[in-house]
Structure formats: structure tokens, C-alpha cells
Amino acid sequence: MPILLLEGLLLLAMISIAIAIIFGKNLLAATIIYCGFSFSAMLLYTIVGAADVAFTEAIIGTISTVYFIIAIKSIKNRGEHDEKK
Amino acid sequence: MTDIIDRLEFFLADRGIYMLALILFAVGIYGMIACGNYMKKIMCMNIMQVSIIFFFLTFGQKEGGTLPIALENIFSAEAYINPVPHALMLTAIVVSLGTTGVGLALLMKIKDIYGTIEEEEITGKGGK
Amino acid sequence: MKKSNSNKKLAAGLIAIIILVGASALKIGSFLPVIGAQDTPANSYLSEYYISHAVEDTASHNIVTAVLADYRGFDTLFETCVLFLSGITAVMILSTKKKISHDKTIRTINDNSEHIFSSNIMDAAFRIVVPIILIYGIYVLIHGEISLGGGFQAGALLACAYLLDRIIPSFQMRVKHITDEIALITAGTGALFYVITGILPMLNGGNFLEFNKLPFGSGAGDIAGLHSTGILMIEIGVTLCVMGIIITILEVVLERTDFDD
Amino acid sequence: MITESLRPALAIATALLAAILILFFGNRLKPNVREGITLVAAAVMTGLVFSMIPKVLGGGAFVAELWTIADGIQLKLKTDGAGMVFACIASFLWILTSVYSIGYVRGHHEKNQTGYFAAFAACIASAIGIAFSANLITFFIFYEMLTLATYPLVAHYRDEKAKASGRKYLAYTLVSGQLFFAAIVWVYAKYGTCEFAAGGFIEAGSMPKALMCVMFFMMIAGGVVKAGVMPFHGWLPSAMVAPTPVSALLHAVAVVKAGVFCLLRIICYVFGPESSAWCGGASVLSWFAVFTILVSSMVAMRQDNLKARLAFSTVGQLSYIVLGICILSVYSIAGAMFHMVAHAFLKITLFMCAGAIFVTTGLSQISTMGDLAKRMPVTCVCFTAASLGIAGLPLMAGFISKFNILQGALTMGKPMFIAVLMAAALLALSYLIPVVRIFFGKESSSQTVSCTAAEHGHVHSSSGFDAAPAMLIPLVLTTVVAIILGCFPDAGTHLYDMAVMAAEEIMGEGGIYLAG
Amino acid sequence: MNQIAQHLPVLIILFPLCATLLCPLISHFSPDWGKRSVISALFLSVVCAVWQLVIVVSSGESIHYFLGGWKPPIGIEFAVDNVNAVIILLVAVISWTTSLFSSPFEKKERTRSLYSAGYYSMLAFLAVGLLGMSTTGDAFNLYVFMEITAISGYGLIAVGEEKGPIASFRYLMTGTIGASMYLLGVGFLYASTGTLNMADLADKMPQLTDSPLIIIAVACLIVGFGIKMALFPLHGWQPAAHSYAHPGADPMIAGIMIKIPAYAMLRFFYCIFIEDSKVMQLFFAALGVMAVLGVLFGSLKALRYDTYNKILAYSSIGQVGYIAMGFAIGNVYGLIGAVLHIVSHAFMKAGLFYTSGALKYRYGIHETTYLGQVYRKMPVTSLTMVVCALSMIGLPPFAGFFSKWYLALGAIQKGQYIFVAVLILSSLLGAIYFFRIIEKLFMEREKISDEENNMRTEKKGKELPWQMLVPLIVVVAAVILIGLFNAYIAGDVLKPVITEVFLK
User: Which of C88, E10, E337, E375 is the most exposed place for a label (fewest CB within 10 A)?
Assistant: First the structure.
């Protein structure tokens, strides 16, 4: 498959993921999709030939997803605590 | 069939990829402005930054170029993909990680103060 | 009702923007060079120099690393600083906090059986994965000039190992928790190491970060060797800093979270 | 003939230094020391200013180029004839007003005396600066300093009324000041200089007539407002809420005179008589002045508050000077300049009298002042003399200046102005003489006086003869000076000579001039 | 000595950088010494900046420092000419005074040693970022420094008052968009020239005049810089950020954080693009409109508020409009006015925010209604307030007047009379809201609640700690001295470089 076509498809996928994030209701779901976004970004970078950037993106994607999840967790806890009070 | 693919490919090479990247950029910015949820805003910020990084990387692409790791036997510049955008974007990517970290910290702080991370509710509580 | 209405508005705006930007981007795209072309200004001017001189200048086969750590080493210094700064900022922002009461945190760690992330499989996987990650991290650090990777990736990998350790509690207590302060100090020291690597040539009559004036190395002939020493040194600094900061942010965020539910 | 000397700068520096000393240490010093600083500074400054007179009379000038204040423009001071006239009256009257102020604020137990004396000194410093400025930028700097330094004086009492008049004052002066600023920039950008030159440096016809007219009016905006030409006089009567020495200073010495002086500088030293006449600005301004002279006199007649009446009288008299400048002949300009002197001495006498009456008896309304002459004979006599002088009676300072202005109008062939000037003299008599009549009349008894005084609760020396000496001596002195100047205009400091000299310089060597 | 002198441009940045990296370590043992190390490092920067200014001005040549020993365009270059050196000195001075100023605040709030370290690290990083922005000659390096500035800004705003985090978050969003726009613009430039060095970009420009790519790049850059400098339609983040930032750091945030992007914009546009190209016409037109609207909007909006900080924040929007106006005028005097206004406004605004911080420190208030008679207790603060306010209005002989003078002169020389009208109008509006403050300060009766009364009596007789007085005095002296001796700065220091480099 030609490289550019693959790039184009991946970009389209990323755009749709972005739209899904904007319109999604569930934050956790959004975070998981974001993980997918980050993965497609990594693929894209690899295709373009930027291996270093892709490598970094892979690690950063992981770390930021973990951060996001922890943050969601903490926010939810907070909310529940408040409700309990 | 190959004809269509060829044309499509030419379109993509000429302007299509740029268009898609810029659309991604616009969607990111739009999300940052329009989304009510602060967490989503941060995600959209990342999306925007990814699009810019990709945009830069496309400048460095070369038909038939290999990864910018010097091999023993090839020295001609045409053989390698342009490494400059890669170096720049590594920096940019790290910066975006830093920004995300700060954004998340802020988010949690806002949650502490206002008990919510929805823009509307905060504005309603006098968060102006 | 209200929600769906606002969603509609959102969608309408989005479609409008996509069409608008798409149309203008088509126009803009036609001015930009064709992707993959060889003779664009971006591909021919500076990059040619970098590609053809990187190996003899810096003995680094990975041209990206050469550009990143040597030709534009100053950028990288401040990239590291950005990270350090973001760590410190996160700590500051969350410092005036209503902490989750301390005993609860301890309980969370001790009552591993209840924890969602904890299971035998996880634990076993953890035992296998962490050493591999650590080794790989160090490999990436040292071989940054030859193959992919560099200080940043290495630091992130090392931090990942800790991250796994932190969020997957095991039956045995392992590494002691690193407090955010210690992690910050590590990060600061790492970045300082970078700065000192830059300052050393200044004492030897060179400019800031001018590695061929580093005060060690065999003789005048081995300029590329000096450069690769310099690159290794700053990679170590970057690794330390990145690791420290990722751990800092993690700790700060985790401190406010309990996996209790 | 031009001597580089720091003397003009020293004169300003003395007053500024006094202001700063008082401001920073005033609260820690005893009142005596504080007032001592004022008096010493006043004396030193007057000495410095007067010591420069001989040189200026001889046709020379002291020039102090201090440093470059903006790219290409020097902070430059120069003592020419016109400036010396203004500087002399400002510095000399500072001594008298400060002596008077001391009496006044003590008798009246004013608050915030430190700020008061500091602002007073700053006012005088800027007035002297205005007098000596050699270019527009220097002029503007001191001009705005004067605005700022006067503001705390106007709003001295810090109650709602004082604040309102302070705001009004600022509104008028700042708006006009900004227009002035724009005009200065314009002139500098267009002509590349902003150095004052006798006879002006803007040539008629160097730009379209309408544009030059706009420039002219923007330029004089600052002066017109400070000089209180109607309809821009609004701030002056409302500034009456300030203590009387302030009013005296505002009306007689610093502020309004600075406004008039500003007009003189702009019409005669920037545009020059030729361009001013060519663009039509001068004649329009002169009609404004005529209007002001007539209307203000009428308004003055209806004021019952003594200070308000005097304020409107000031508005009218200043327009005299404006008119004199706008007639643009040697005589009238000299007359206008000398009227600055004459009016300064006369009006300050009147205000000091009003203040002395207020402090001693607590009276401020004219209608309650019946039979005051018995209680304060000296004050009343001085008041009468000064009133006659304002009206332009021969042998008083006012006569010479008015005569010159008339002569100027005559030579320029402007009968309308002559009529106005004559009418104005009568009008001045008609609003001041009733006051005098009430002073010496027998309508109201002395009981009323003491009653109102008791009501006001201001009386502290009700048993003494006339006003307190600190107030009485200055006002007697000014009266005497006014009379001396009327009889011998060149007495002592040769102010009249200097005025004539400056006027001749402005108009060129045209016409033989006879002393009046 | 000579050897040190040759490293000055980078040393100025390295001192605070080393201090801030060491700060957590030192603070671990002694927070006070951590703080002191940052303050003294910033002081060393001031010394170096003065030295550098002297060298640059006396030799008349600009310093080029090649980082890593790589000649540009291969490596990154620091270029210091007269204008740069002035701006660097400005940043160094304000950073140092601010670090001194915030020391009592920080002591009061200190909960753990890390807090002290963190606060001072952020402050020093803000200084590093701003110094870097004003020194660097590389477009991408500018982006990195911009982000450093921005992130430390987010932190300092977030740790401020209660609404700080929200303001900070909004700033984070807008600021990131701005930085991304800038990066996009640089991307376009890179795509069309293949280089990132500013001098090299300038060399390549003549062949590319009126290329559509350049126009797009300029549009992106204007938006990017516009957001960072809070130019009128892009100012949304600014009022909240400036009014809720940490009171100790606010002078720096309000004083220079929006000025240095403006200065970077000046350098970027005037050094790279050719003056009579289509691109610059677009730049002039866009900036002119934005400036005029911004000046009017800022001044009018400031009238509506009673909170000291808000008034100052909105007036900043107007003042940034002045600077943009200078860029839009684009002749020698316009640019001198703009640069001088960057300097003078930085001092004035910093001074006003120092007074705001002092009020906050002493009384815990920001409302102007409580200002009555404060001058009796805090004479130095009030003096600063008055001097800075008068300078803001643009009354002589303070610094603000002369920058206005040059701006007006430039505008008239170029025939842009509307700019002069706007300048005057905005001065008058400024006079309204500043005299309202001054009137309250001196004329109003004391108006205090019981709680404040206790606070007042508690510290009777003492104005402020010396760490807070020094900045106030420095600022007042700077405003007056820049006013009186501006001709030296404008004529001898700025003018040669502006005519040669910016308007070649």
C-alpha cells in the first residue's frame, strides 16, 4: 500500500478520534480513545520516517495516558467525598 | 484502479496531507475553545500539538530516504530523511508533555476549589 | 434537552470550521512544497550540512541525536528545563492541598488484596517486565548516538519502571517510595549536570556547550570523540532530569488519589 | 551678550529643593523650621532672579542648557525680557504670599500644612520654569508640573466640594494640556525646532491656512484654559473653595499668569505676529477676549461672595492681557506684559484683603460686611486703592498698562476694541466700588459682624487692631508697590523697560515707542 | 576579565539557571539559603547585564555568541545589540527586584521547604525565559524560551489568589494556542527557507517577497505574538491572569511578561522581513487596527472597575496597544517610542503592581475603596503609586511622557494623525482612572473594617520590610531617571541600531 495513502487514512482516523473525544460523554472512554490517538500518531511518525519522534511519542503517550487516568481517578474520588459530606 | 490511486496519491502529496493536518489542527483548537470539560480541553491541546508536530515532520520527508541514521557506506544527503524537523519536534513533544503535566495539576486544583471541572458550572459559581 | 441542543451547536460549529479550514488549507497546501520532493529549501539547505557532517563532527551515527544534543544542544538544555519547570509547577500548584488523610493512604498500600490493579498475574508480569525495562532504558541511554533514542527516552523508560512499581502494588514491599522532593532534587541535579557539561568548555576557553573544548580526552586530534563524550554526559543529565520529573508529577498526582473504591 | 550660566536653573532648583525638603521632612520638623525653609528659599530665589535683571536690561540673556531632554531637544532655560517680567513678579510675590500664608494658615488652623507649603513651593518653581523656558518642550514640562502642583492646593480641604473642584480643574487643564502636547509634537515634526524665537519661527503660508488655524488653536488651548478665557473659565470660580492664599496665588501670580504667559509665548514667539494674524487665529481669540471682558464683569456684579466676585474680576482682567497680545502691536504687547505685573500686584492685594477679612472676622459674603472699615481700617483702605487700580485710575499701575493697550488698539485702527476697553474700565468700577461703599457704609452695625463671626467660630484675635501683622504687612506692601509702579513704572526693577524691550524685539524695529 | 566578558550573553542566563536548578537541593537543607541563592544569582545577572550594555554601547558593535561553537545557521546564536542589551538589563533588573520583593510573601506563606524552592525556581525560570527570549537569534529557540516563560507564568498565576487556578488554566489554553501558532508560523518559514536563524532568514527573504507562504506565516506569527503580548482582540486571558497572580510575582508577570513577546515581535518582523514588502504592509495594517482598538478598549474598560489590580490589568491592554502602535508606525521615532515604552511601561507597571502587592501584604486588600489615607502609613508606597500613575498618564517629566512623545512624533511624521488622537484620548482616560485612585489615596477618609483595623494597628509605625522597599525605590528612580535622561537612551543607544538594523 502506498505510504501517502496510509498517512491519509491514519490522519482521517485521528480526526475522527478527535471528534469522538470532543463529543464523547464519558471521560474514561475519552482517555482510552486518546490512547488510541496517541498510538496512531506514533504509527504516523514511523511512516513519515521519524523513528525517534515515534519512539518518544510512544513513551509519552503511555505516560500521559497514565496521568490522565490517575487524574480522572482523583477527580472522581474528590467528587464522591464531596457528595458524602 | 491504479489510476485512481495514483491520482489520489498525487493529490495527497501535493496538498491533501497538509489539508488533513491543518484540519486536525483546527479540530484541536476548536475542541480547546468549545469543549466545556477541562480534561477534554487538555486532550484537545495535545491533539493540536500532535498535528503541528506532524506538520513539521512532513517537511522533512524525502522520497526514497531512509531513517537519519548514518550508515557506513552512504553519505549522500539525498539518501536520508531530513533530520532537522525531527530534532525540533522532539523538543516540541517534550514541551507538550510538560504543558500537559501542568494542565493536569491545574485541573485537580480547580476540582479542589470548585468541585467541578465543567466550564459552565464554574462560570455559574462566579469563576469569572 | 439542553445538552443535546448544545451538542448540536457544537457539531455545527465543528463542521463549519472543518469546511472552512479544509478549503483554505487546500489553497495553502498548493503553495507548500510537494511532499517527498528532494529539492525543497527545507530539505536541501541546512539538512544537507547536518547529514554530511554529523558523523565526522560528532561521531554520532544517529543524525537526529547529533542535531539535538550537539548542534542544537542549547535547545535541548531548555527542553529539559521546561520539563523540570513543569514538575516544579505541578508540585507548587498542588502544594496547598487538602491531602487525603494519611492513614488512608497507608491502608491503601497495605490492603493490597482489595486493590484493583493488584493480582498475581500482574505481580508476576511486573517481576518480569521491570528488569527488562530498566535494562532497555540504560541501553537506550548509552546507545543514543548510534541507534534510536537518547536521554529523554531513557529517562522516561526508567520512570516507567518506577511507575509500574508504584501503581501495581505487590505482595512484597519493594522500592521505597520516592518523595516528590527527592525526585525534584534528582531532576535538578540532572539538569545541572547538563549545565555543568556546558560550562566545562568555557573554563577551557571555548563557548558554552562547545564540546571540542572539553577538558578531558586524549589529545587535540580526537574532536569527534570529545563530542561523543559530551553528548553522553548531557544524555545522562537529561535522563536523570526526565526520570525525576515524571516521578515527581506522578507522586504529586498520586498523593491526592486513593484507589479505594 | 548671551552668557552661559546656571543661574536660571538655580532659581528653579531653589524652589524645587524647598518643595522636596518640606515634603519629606515637613512632618518631622517644627512648623517654624518648615516656614523658615519657605521664606529662605523665597528670598534666595528672588535674589537670584533680580540679580539677572541688569544683564537682561542691557539686551543680554543668561542661557542654561542643562541636558538633552528628548532626542534633539535640549532642556534649555533662557532669560529674555518677557520671561524676566513674569519671573520677577512670581518670585517677589512668593515672599509676600508666603509671609501672608503663614499668618493665614496659623490664624485659620489649616490642616495638612506640610503638603500645602510643599505644593506652594512647587507651584512657584514651575512658574519660574515657565518664565525661563527656552523651548516648547521645556515649557510644557513646567506647564504640566504647574498643573499637578496646583491640584493639591485646589483640593486642599479634601471634602466633597474641594474634590469636585479639583476634578474640574484637572479636567480642564489636562484636556487642554494634551491638546497643547499634540500641537507641540506637530510643530516639532513639521518645522524641526521648538525653540522660542522673538517674532516666531512659523512662517505665514508654510502650510494651508485652515490647518494652521487648527494648529494655532490646539497650541493655545493650554494657555486659554489656564488664563480662564470664556467659555473655558469654568474651573476658576470653582477653585474658589481653596484657602485664600491659594486663590491669591492662583489668580494673581502663578496659574493664570502662566496661562497668559503661555499665550504670549505662543502667539509672539512661536507663530509670531505675522502668522498669527495671517491664519486668523489672533483675531478670533481677540473676540473671545472681548466677550470675556464684558460677560465676566456682568457676572461679577451679581456675586455676593467676595472671593467669587474677585474671581470673575480676574477672568475679565486676564482677557485684557489676552486682548492686548492679540492686537499685535508694539504698544499693546508691552501694555499686556505690564498689565501682568500691575494686575498681579493689584489682584493679590484684593485677595489678601479678602483673606484677612475672612480670618479676622469670619465674613465671606459682601452683604454682611457693612461698616467693616471701623474694624479693619488699613485693610479696607488697601482694598479701595487696589480696586481703583484695577479700574485703571491714573497714578495706579493699572492705568499705564491699560493706556498702552488702548494706544495699541488705536494704532492698529480697531475702534471696537477701544470702546470695549473703555466700557470695561467702567464695569470694573461698577462691581468693585459697591464693595468699597459697603465697607465704609453704615448700613449694618458692628453687632452683625460679631454675631456672624461667632457663628463661624473663626475669630481668634477679635480684640486686636485690624488683621494679624503677618497678613497685614504683605498686603500693605503690595498696595504700596502698586502705587509706586503706577507713578514710576521703571522704579527699581525696570519691569516696564523690560516689557517694552520684549515687545520691540517681537515686533522688530518698527515704530518709535514713547513711555506712557 | 576579558574571558568572562566574552561569555556575558550566556552568563546572564546561566546564573539564574544554575541557581534555580540548585534551589530544591539547597532548600532541602535551608529554605532561606535557597532563596538567597536565587536572589544573588539574579543580582549577578543584573551586574552582567550592565557590563554587557556598557561593552555593547561603547564598542558600537553587536555581540554574537555561538552556542556550542557552531557558527550560525548551523548552531544557535545569541545576538546582542544595543536594543537587546537595554531590554536584557530591564528584564534582569525587574527580575531581581521582584525576587527581592516576594521574599516576605514567600516567608509568610511557606508551609514546607519545597514551597520556597518551587516559588523561587519558577520566578527564576520566568527570568531565564524572558532573558532568553530577548537574547536569542534563533526562531525555534525563541519558541522554547517562550514556553519556559509561559509555564512558569502558569505556575505563578495558579499559586496566587483564589481564582488563580482558573485564570491560569485559561491562560494555559490560550497561551498554548499562541505558542502553537508561533510554531506553525516558524514551520511555514522553515518550509520556504530551510533555516531557523533569524539573520539567515533575513538573508533569504529578498528572494521570497510576497510569496503567499510568507504571508500565511506572518498571519500566524501575528496571532502567536499577539496572544502572548495580550494585544487587543487576543487579550482574553490577560485581565484575570494579571489580577489574580501571586502578589509577589505579579510585578514581573504584569511588568515584563507581556512586553518581551512584544519586543520579540519587533525583532522578528523588523529584522527578518523587508520593510516595503507586501508582508509588512499587512503587518502595519493589522497591527495599526489592533493597536488603536486595543488602546481605546483597555482604557475604557479600566474605567469600569474598582479593583486596583483589574484597573491595572486593563490599562496594560491599552499600553500594549501603544507599543503595537509604535510598531505600526514603523519609522525611527515610532520604533524608538515603542522600545522606550516597553522599558518605561515595564517599570511603571511593575511599580504599580509593587504597590498593589504592598497593600496586599500590609492590609490584604485590593479594593480602591479602602485606599483612604493609606499614604500616612505607607509614604514610600504612595509615592511610588503617584509617580508611576502620573507616568502612566504620560505627564512630564516622567518616563511615560517621553515614550508618548516619540510615538506621537513618529505618527505625525508618517501622517498617521489618528494615532495621535488615540494617544491623547487614552491619556485622558488614563488620567480619569488614575486620578480617581490618587484622589482616594489622599483625600478619602480612612475606611476600614475591624479585622483590617487589627492588622493595621498590629504593625503600626513600620512601613514595609526593606526587601519590599528596595524594589519600590528602584522603580521610582528608574521612572524618573529614564524620563530625565531618555535622550541618551533614545538618541545614543537605540537610534543607531534602530536605523541600521531594524530599518535597513
Answer: E375
Which residue from E18, E67, E194 is facing C45, i.e. has the nearest CB? E194
**pTM, entire model:** 0.91
**Cell 568548555, residue?**
C201
Using omega within 30 degrees of 0 as the cis cutoff, is the peptide bond preceding D231 cis?
Answer: yes
Give the contacts of A33 (CB within 8 A, at least 6 positions apart). A17, A20, A21, A24
Residue C40: list chain E partners with CB under 8 A. 191, 194
Identify the burial level of D445 via C-beta atoms within 10 angstroms of its C-beta, where 0-12 means exposed, 13-18 middle and 19 or more buried. exposed
Contacting partners of chain A (3+ CB pairs under 8 A) = B, C
Annotated domain spans of chain D:
2-507
Look at C96 and E111 and tell me if their CB atoms are within 8 Å.
yes
**Which of the other chains make 3 or more beta carbon contacts under 8 angstroms with chain E?**
B, C, D
Q: What are the chain E neighbours of B45 within 8 Å (beta carbons)?
A: 173, 176
Is B94 in Cβ contact with A71 (below 8 Å)?
Answer: no
Q: Which of residues 271-330 of E touch C (CB under 8 A)?
A: none
**Interchain pair E17, C184: CB under 8 A:** no
**Exposed/middle/buried for A3, CB within 10 Å: 0-12, 13-18, 19+?**
middle
User: What does the block give as the cell for D481?
Assistant: 508697590
Domain segments of chain C as ranges:
61-255
Chain D touching partners, 3 or more CB pairs below 8 A: E
What is the side-by-side order of every strand in the sheet holding D2-4? D2-4, D61-70, D73-78
Residues 55-84 of B with CB under 8 A from E: 55-56, 59
- Interchain CB distance below 8 Å, E190 and B85: yes
Query: How many residues are given for chain E?
Result: 504
Interface contacts (B, C; CB < 8 Å): 174
Decide: residue D43, CB within 10 A, 0-12 exposed, 13-18 middle, 19+ buried. middle
User: Which residues are CB-contacts of E298 (< 8 A; sequence separation ≥ 6)?
Assistant: E232, E235, E314, E315, E316, E317, E318, E319, E320, E321, E426
All three cell numbers of C92: 507548587
Of C74, B100, A65, residue with least CA distance to E154: B100
Structural domain boundaries enclosing B60: 2-124
Burial code (b: 16+ CB inside 10 Å, e: under 16) for D347-367 equals: bbbbbbbbbbbbbbbbbbebe
> Which three-class secondary structure string do you get for E130-144?
HHHHHHECEHHHHHH
Main-chain phi, psi angles of A74, to 5 degrees = -65, -40
Closest Cα to residue E116, out of E148, E157, E159?
Answer: E159
pLDDT string in tens for chain D (516-residue length): 677 888 888 888 888 888 888 887 766 767 778 778 888 888 888 888 888 888 877 777 888 888 888 888 888 888 888 888 888 888 888 888 888 887 777 777 767 777 788 888 888 888 889 988 888 888 999 988 888 888 888 887 778 888 888 888 888 888 988 999 999 888 888 888 888 887 778 877 778 888 888 888 888 888 888 888 888 888 887 777 777 777 777 666 778 888 888 888 888 888 888 788 888 888 888 888 888 888 888 888 888 788 888 888 888 888 888 888 888 887 888 888 888 888 888 888 888 888 888 877 777 777 777 777 777 778 888 888 888 888 777 777 778 888 888 888 888 777 788 888 888 888 888 888 888 877 777 555 444 444 444 444 444 444 456 667 777 888 888 888 888 887 777 766 777 777 777 777 777 655 434 333
All cell numbers assigned to B15: 496538498
Supply the CATH number for residue B79's domain: 1.10.287.3510
Check if B24 contacts E (Cβ < 8 Å): no
How many angstroms away from the CA of A83 is the closest CA of chain C? 14
The DSSP symbol for D5 reads -
Q: Where are the domains positioned within chain A?
A: 3-84
Q: What is the DSSP secondary structure assignment for residue C261, as one 8-state letter?
A: -
